[in-house]
Design goal:
Layout (H helix, E strand, L loop, with lengths): L5 E10 L12 E7 L2 E4 L10 E9 L11 E9 L6 E10 L12 E4 L12 E9 L19 H9 L9 E2 L10 H14 L4 H16 L10 E4 L18 E4 L25 E2 L11 E2 L28 E11 L12 E7 L2 E4 L11 E9 L7 E8 L7 E9 L16 E6 L7 E14 L9 E2 L16 E4 L3 E12 L12 E7 L2 E4 L11 E11 L5 E11 L2 E11 L4 E3 L8 E4 L1 E2 L8 H5 L6 E9 L28 E11 L5 E3 L2 E3 L2 E7 L2 E4 L10 E10 L5 E8 L16 E9 L8 E12 L2 E16 L2 H8 L7 H4 L4 H19 L8 H7 L9 H29 L4 H16 L4 H17 L11 H4 L6 H7 L9 H33 L7 H20 L2 H12 L12 H7 L10
Parallel strand pairs: 17-22, 30-33
Antiparallel strand pairs: 1-4, 1-8, 2-3, 2-5, 5-6, 6-9, 7-8, 10-11, 12-43, 13-42, 14-17, 14-21, 15-16, 15-18, 18-19, 20-21, 23-38, 24-27, 24-33, 25-26, 25-28, 28-29, 29-32, 31-33, 34-39, 34-43, 35-36, 37-38, 37-40, 40-41, 42-43
Helix pairs in contact: 7-8, 10-16
Membrane topology: Multi-pass membrane protein
Protein name: C2 domain-containing protein
Keywords: Calcium, Membrane, Metal-binding, Repeat, Transmembrane, Transmembrane helix
Length: 1062
């Protein structure tokens, strides 16, 4: 089949090019090279700001192109005449990983780069790149009349005769084959010249108008592309550093929609409190990370030398499953009573039975295509029986036949081998007599592992008790967060604002609404009919765009009453997408008078000929990273626009092995039970393991892979109890998946190419105190693709440059993060199975910004632990000055004398000292990733009242007396902080008073001292003064006084402004 996919390079224009023709101008054209496919634009004569507006097409095969290594090279040349040849004007290299599909392309400007150090290059070029999946765009663009100066054949002849260029940054065309479409360009140019010979002047104007429209284009919205990251095979260890095996396949699938899940209260059962482990009652080692000695990956023993069983799952333990795929049946007999057939298949293995759905359409050619999985550990039979039955409304179901398999004869299949082809099997008599009956069934039976493609969608024998909608809620799934944009609305001004009461001037403000987000401008300070604001309102929106931007102009009639003057609704797909700080075009919009709309008749609406209007500048910001999580635990720093993404620097692989010692989260059949599943989040990709039913030590053994774009990011894993399994009690609308615990791992703390296999304790702070709810066992490997790229990232900002050029305020960041979190939770809650809101909120730490006395104490002691090092240094210097250790004091005197006599040794000594400290600390480096620290979190000594305050809702739901008590306690704490801040301010004001003449005598003494010091420092050598001052400071205690020193007494007597406070 012919591949119609094309890469389209839209060459728009260029600006401020370097003159090359000796007359202050140039005749530029553009040459594009993609995978040895060369194509060029037409030549624009005598222009340093050329406009091409021409599309170039290249063959594109997704299976061949490596997104991370391939580049598109765009070069600009000056075509010389009359001597054939060309001169280099600049080039741009664009990584293919930044290319988007048609509909997402955005006009971009690139600075032209040099080819060598001696090249003289300046200017910019405007381009658009995208991938087209159809041939509708592949008509050759109609060129404007510009006849080329020389043909490729003439250029080759002149080059062969020995013509060479004198400049070091120019080239000469060598052959007609230099360009893949040179002859086509000449034919197109000549054809366009004949067709538009009389429109030369008008054509240039049309091009300029087209470019101006392109700068303010309206990009249509399209469904957000979802990218599935493929798991890599570890069969060849040499492929570890092969970036081609780490690519991502963009899939154009629309996110499924569903009803929003209501949230309700889900509290721990009272019986479960006894099962929780408290910190004070257990061994402290239970709250630490433990190493697990497991043989994973290449360390697995290979019992079969001819077959490898690891597959792509080399970070988890191998688990074998018996898979049975029931495809379809044919030629089934009709029922004896109804004359029809309602067939279904029952798969039986020992005590386990699995059923397919039955058909009510009285068909004899049913198709199920359903997979059943039986874990090998629980197989208690040597035969597998597959029964075909007829569903009967009354009485017992009829047996139509069966197929029996011997488990010893079942083949083994390990990915990446192709799936086992299903086969037709004739049905035998169900009584076991060996007699063949009418009908056949298509089956595939094999022994595989959890790496099999059928594993996520299979019916598992250990979840046979789940029915109905609960079957979908126990499967493992991969989710992708929606593509988030910042919508910036710049409200400039309005005109002809007429209030309802025309006897007064309006107090006007603008209110903007997007979905559940509402923002307002300030009231115009001047009462006028033409108000001016010039304020920015920023919202968070997600693709595909579903909401509209509603702008309303309102009048503040009273402090408790606002009157709408006019409003307008604008779709998101009409706004321009901006990738940098360049301003976008503003537009005037007519406001619909409030009260007139679609429901009114045409005659009524035509009466409103006059309308107010508002001046807006609106754009979608693609240069920012929309933060839906705290910057302290950020897992992705890429901007919204895919065109600005960097290449990945590594690969993160996590094997979710299982959990151990989980606490019962609910009561089932009179005993404690937990239906646990694990969720991992990194970047835009969320993964969810399947739910293990009724197990306090579940084993998942599932492995997932993420691309890493920045090593200074955090991956988060959480365990939850599934409360939506289809039963009446658990599937109610008020039920919420209970949180069991969470683990965070910062990638920068991991060594490259090393497998970490550890058991992390799950610690949860509850109203009763710190509790351990179990252990999470995982294996982690961070593989770096290039050490140079890792080092390069450490020297660049963490967030995209727009966060630093035009930063948001702290209040804006908090508000936008909360809105982004709500959008992500809503969209993921519409998937199947849904990733519920309580899960997303817990993984994104939605309540991390709320007040907590415990967190305040923890942060205070964190600051004190940092300052403790400086305090220890000061104490050591004090001991040296007091000669507490005479040997140390003598050595310090000798070192001080050497540094004073040779000051050029000061900085080398300091850096050498830090170098040896780093080497000394290498032996005590951490051997495992850091985890939650109870002492650092101040969770082991927190009181019950402080915990109750931390778990209180916002706004509070406690009694007035309790709130008043907590408020008084907060006032006492704030009073002590207020005193410390006042002391710091007083010290700074005393320094300012030295020269302010607030105390005339103190200022006079200080300026006289400065005059004497300047004379002494000028007359005496600096080394002598430094040596004398240092020896005086380090003098023996016999020559010291216990009273404060003279400078200290003088400084403490200086005035501050504290006496001016009320």
């Amino acid at each position: 089949m012919r591949n119609n996919t094309k890469l389209v390079v839209h060459v728009v224009d260029a600006q401020n090019l370097m003159p090359r023709d000796g007359q202050g101008s140039a005749s530029p054209f553009v040459e594009v090279d993609f995978l040895n496919q060369l194509s060029k634009t037409r030549t624009v004569p005598k222009s340093l700001n050329p406009v091409w507006d021409q599309k170039l097409y290249f063959d594109y095969d997704h299976n061949v192109v490596n997104h991370h290594n391939q580049h598109i090279e765009v070069s600009v040349y000056h075509e010389r005449r009359p001597a054939p040849g060309r001169s280099f004007l600049g080039r741009v290299k664009i990584s293919f990983s930044n290319i988007v599909y048609k509909g997402d392309q955005v006009y971009q400007r690139f600075n032209l780069e040099k080819k060598s150090l001696l090249s003289s290059v300046k200017g910019e070029i405007g381009l658009k790149f995208y991938i087209s999946l159809s041939e509708q765009d592949q008509s050759f663009p109609l060129s404007f009349p510009s006849k080329p100066y020389t043909s490729p054949t003439q250029a080759s002849l002149v080059a062969a005769s020995g013509t060479k260029e004198d400049s070091t940054d120019s080239e000469t065309e060598e052959s007609p084959e230099s360009f893949a479409s040179a002859e086509q360009e000449d034919l197109a140019d000549s054809a366009s010249e004949c067709a538009e010979g009389k429109k030369t002047e008008g054509g240039t104007e049309q091009v300029k108008e087209g470019v101006q429209k392109l700068h303010r284009q309206e990009v249509l919205a399209r469904p957000a592309p979802m990218h599935s990251i493929r798991l890599r095979s570890r069969e060849n260890p040499q492929e570890t550093n092969n970036p081609q095996s780490r690519g991502a396949n963009p899939l154009h699938t629309q996110q499924p929609r569903g009803a929003n899940q209501p949230r309700g209260a889900n509290q721990l059962h009272p019986h479960n409190t006894n099962h929780l482990q408290s910190y004070g009652d257990t061994d402290p080692d239970d709250f630490k990370v433990k190493d697990m000695n497991l043989e994973l990956g290449e360390r697995w023993p290979n019992t079969n030398s001819g077959e490898r069983f690891t597959g792509t799952y080399d970070l988890v333990e191998q688990m074998f499953y018996l898979y049975v795929r029931v495809v379809r049946a044919k030629e089934l007999p009709h029922g004896s009573i109804t004359g029809g057939c309602d067939p279904y298949v029952e798969v039986k293995l020992g005590n386990y039975k699995g059923r397919t759905k039955h058909f009510d359409r009285k068909t004899t050619l049913p198709e199920w295509n359903q997979v059943f999985a039986f874990t090998k550990e629980r197989i208690q039979s040597s035969v597998l029986e597959v029964f075909v039955k007829d569903k009967e409304t009354l009485g017992r179901d009829d047996f139509l036949g069966k197929v029996v398999f011997d488990l010893n004869e079942i083949p083994t299949r390990v990915p990446p081998n192709s799936p086992l082809a299903p086969q037709w099997y004739k049905l035998e008599d169900w009584r076991g007599e060996g007699r063949v009956v009418r009908g056949e069934v298509m089956l595939a039976v094999w022994m595989g592992t959890q790496a099999d493609e059928a594993f996520p969608e299979a019916w598992h024998a250990d979840s046979a008790s789940v029915h109905g909608e609960g079957v979908f809620n126990i499967r493992s799934k991969v989710y992708v967060s929606p593509k988030l944009w910042y919508l910036r609305v710049n409200v400039i001004e309005a005109q002809d604002i007429i209030p309802s009461d025309r006897n007064r001037l309006p107090d006007v403000f603008v209110k903007a609404n997007v979905g559940m987000q509402t923002l307002k401008t300030k009231i115009c300070p001047v009462k006028t009919a033409n108000p001016l604001w010039n304020e920015d309102l920023v919202f968070v929106v997600a693709e595909p765009f579903e909401e509209q931007l509603v702008i309303s102009v309102e009048d503040r009639v009273h402090t408790s009453k606002d009157e709408v003057i006019g409003k307008i609704s604008l779709p998101m797909n009409m706004f321009e997408k901006r990738l940098d700080h360049r301003p976008v075009h503003s537009r005037w919009f007519n406001l619909d008078k409030y009260g007139t709309g679609v429901l009114e008749g045409d005659s009524r609406r035509k009466e409103h000929k006059f309308s107010s209007r508002i001046h807006l500048r609106i754009c979608l910001e693609g240069g920012y990273h929309v933060m839906d999580e705290s910057t302290m635990y950020i897992s992705d720093t890429r901007p919204t626009a895919r065109q600005l993404w960097k290449q990945p620097v590594g690969m993160l692989e996590i094997g979710i092995l299982g959990a151990k010692g989980l606490v019962p989260m609910k009561v089932k059949d009179g005993r404690g039970s937990t239906d646990a599943y694990c969720v991992a989040k990194y970047g835009q990709k969320w993964v969810r393991t399947r739910t293990i039913l009724d197990s306090l030590s579940p084993r998942w053994n599932e492995q997932y892979t993420w691309e890493v774009y920045d090593p200074c990011t955090v991956v988060t894993l959480g365990i939850f109890d599934n409360c939506h399994l289809g039963s009446v009690q658990s599937g109610s609308a008020a039920s919420r998946d209970a949180r069991i615990g969470k683990v965070r791992i910062r990638l920068s703390t991991l060594e490259a190419h090393k497998i970490y296999t550890h058991s992390f304790p799950l610690l949860v702070l509850q109203p009763h105190g710190l509790k351990k709810t179990g252990d999470l066992q995982i294996s982690v490997r961070f593989t770096t693709l290039s050490l140079a790229n890792i080092i390069y990232n450490y020297g660049h900002p963490l967030l995209p440059k727009m966060h630093y050029l035009f930063p948001f305020t702290v209040n804006q960041v908090d508000g936008l993060r909360y809105q982004a979190m709500n959008i992500v939770a809503t969209r993921l809650g519409r998937a199947e199975p849904p990733l519920r809101k309580e899960v997303v909120e817990y993984m994104l730490d939605v309540d991390s910004h709320l007040w907590s006395m415990r967190r305040s104490k923890a942060n205070f002691f964190r600051v004190m632990s940092l300052l403790s090092g400086y305090f220890l240094v000061g104490k050591w210097i004090e001991d040296v000055c007091n000669w507490r250790y005479p040997v140390t004091s003598v050595l310090v005197h000798v070192l001080f004398f050497i540094l004073v006599m040779y000051p050029e040794l000061i900085l080398p000594t300091m850096f050498l000292y830090m170098f040896f400290i780093g080497l000394w600390n290498f032996k005590s480096r951490p051997r495992h990733p850091p985890h939650m620290d109870m002492k650092l979190s101040w969770a082991e000594a927190v009181g019950p009242d402080e915990l109750d305050e931390e778990f209180d809702t916002f706004p509070t739901s406690r009694s007035q007396d309790l709130v008043r008590l907590r408020y008084d306690r907060l006032r006492s704490v704030a009073g002590r902080i207020q005193t410390v801040v006042g002391d710091i301010a007083a010290q700074g004001e005393r320094v300012q008073s030295l020269m302010s003449w607030r105390d005339p005598r103190a200022t006079s003494l200080f300026i006289l001292f400065c005059l004497a010091a300047s004379v002494v420092l000028y007359a005496m050598p600096f080394k002598a003064i430094t040596l004398a001052g240092g020896l005086y400071y380090l003098r023996h205690p016999k020559f010291r006084s216990k009273l404060p020193s003279l400078p200290s007494n003088f400084f403490k007597r200086l005035p501050s402004r504290i006496d001016s406070l009320l």
